[in-house]
Amino acid sequence: MDLMPSPRFGTFSIVACDPEDGTCGVAVQSKFISVGAVVPWAEAKVGAVATQAASNPAWGPEGLALLKKGLGAKEVVRRLVEGDPGRDARQLGVVDAHGEAAAFTGPKCMDWAGQVVGDGFACQGNILFGPTVVKAMARAYETTGGDIADRLLSALFAGQREGGDRRGQQSAALLVSKKAAGYGESDRWIDVRVDDHASPIEELRRIFRLYDLTLLNREDPKSLLPLVGEVALGVQHDLGVLGYYTGRLNGHWDAPSRAAFVRFVGEHNFENKQTNPEAIWPTVLAYLKERSDAEVARRTHTAPIVPDALSRGPGAQPKGGEPSARRSKRSPASK
């Protein structure tokens, strides 16, 4: 009895390592359910592997094991491909912690399929709109500022802007391994996934941002803003709009303001990062303002927000009674 063939799915991915600290990662998107469970593999100070097309999941741990023995990325690709009879329908990207990268695209991978290999990274994809997808990914990774996580996400967005997977979108993942930088001092620094979504890369960025705010310390401690003056006034205003602060706005970080902010941090799980009650990280401040602006927009469509109502707390109505309700007129025939 013939076994069912391995499913083929269109995928574009990037593997990359930072030789300075050995941080290694993979970003990937596919018209395939839960691509993060199949394609990306990474280990700090070792390397990263992406196995796709008619994926051979064994290439992930086997590739990392070979890298751990000291083999370079090119030799690892050669050995994995040479030892697999199903190689013609497979695709592979490998980068080692020293920055050497290599990739392989089997001749039976579905068009368009191919790769771009650069200094410290490799971009590969199959069933794509064309070679511009991986070229754009490479260009984005090389030119984007920030750390490896920012650059990997930028590459995903660049690939999608060029059409990405010819069949559409479904799942995406970002995996980055950094020595003792993850939760509980593990090496799993970033591991976020979107298993099924109409816009998985956008959703991945949203989830990553919350992950970053909650767990990561990627900002310079010198960037902390003291909660005084205009900063305190802005935070109090935003907390008021979100419904956490009910006192009057005065620009001073008094006890009620501090208690409201501590409550906001706790309810949003930011306490791992926001440990100083007298200062605020710029990213948390930006998140707070975005949430506040969104709440203003939401309430604007339901009830007016006036300065006096803001100072008295969320949901407060203007003095003088309930707001008038808008009632639709029915024609005599209406029921």
Describe the protein's architecture and organization.
The chain folds into 2 domains: about 200 residues, Aminohydrolase, N-terminal nucleophile (Ntn) domain (Glutamine Phosphoribosylpyrophosphate, subunit 1, domain 1, 4-Layer Sandwich), CATH 3.60.20; about 90 residues, no CATH class. The chain contains 9 helices and 12 strands. The C terminus is likely disordered. The strands form 3 sheets. It has a 6-stranded antiparallel sheet, covered by helices on one side. The chain has a 4-stranded antiparallel sheet with strand order 3-4-5-6, covered by helices on one side. Helices cover about 35% and strands about 20% of the residues. The protein is elongated.
Short description:
With 335 residues, this protein is an alpha+beta fold. Helix content is 34%, strand content 20%.
Keywords:
about 325 residues; Glutamine Phosphoribosylpyrophosphate, subunit 1, domain 1; elongated; 4-stranded antiparallel beta sheet; 9 helices; about 35% helix
List the helices and strands and how they pair.
Layout lengths: L10 E8 L4 E8 L9 E4 L3 E7 L5 H10 L4 H10 L7 E7 L4 E5 L8 E5 L2 E6 L5 H12 L4 H14 L9 E7 L10 E7 L5 H16 L9 E2 L2 H14 L12 H13 L11 E2 L1 H19 L6 H6 L23
Antiparallel strand pairs: 1-2, 1-8, 2-9, 3-4, 4-5, 5-6, 7-8, 9-10, 11-12
Helix pairs in contact: 1-2, 3-4, 6-8
